Amino acid sequence: xxLSDQFLKPVxxxxxxxxxxxxxxxxxxxxxxxxxxxxxxxxxGMFEHLSDLFxxxxxxxxxxxxxxNSWDVHEEWNIKDYDLVLCFRLTYxxxxxxxxxxQIKKTVDNNRLFIGDFVSGNIVNNTMCWRDSDNLVxxxxxxxxxxxxxxxxxxxxxxxxxxxxxxxxxSLELTDCISFEDPKGRHYLxxxxxxxxx
Length: 198
Description:
Rossmann fold, six-stranded mixed sheet, three-stranded mixed sheet
């Protein structure tokens, strides 16, 4: 992930800089982020790169399966009462779109602002898929402004696919989106996830 990380971190930082209207006194949940206060943690690069966007009065909580207080994205999330929930580099690791949407919906309902990313999977002959994996394929070409290519998808069953209709059918909406392609050819979408009030 070295090359991708060096490409992705500045993109995420630029997005947050443009989207956050306040950066102080926030209570922030970092989903899928190991606790940087634990010296044995290795997956702390995203926090280290983004943390200077927030002043010293912010409160940060870290949710990851490898933290001392283990948190598993495949189980009930129970993320409540945060000003900001950051769900970066995590959704593609989920295998069940129904579970992901259910947990995102609860998280959106119980917190002030949810920002996440959605990754296509690998691209093989214009088909979004994961090789040798049932990880989630986020098939969201309606939001892509960085390419006009026509894509298909391949999954082993429908619960390994996330698309716009599934999101909208759950009364959720993606707003303030940016899309881009990473050095591995995967397509990314970063966005707010909000309740669809209509």
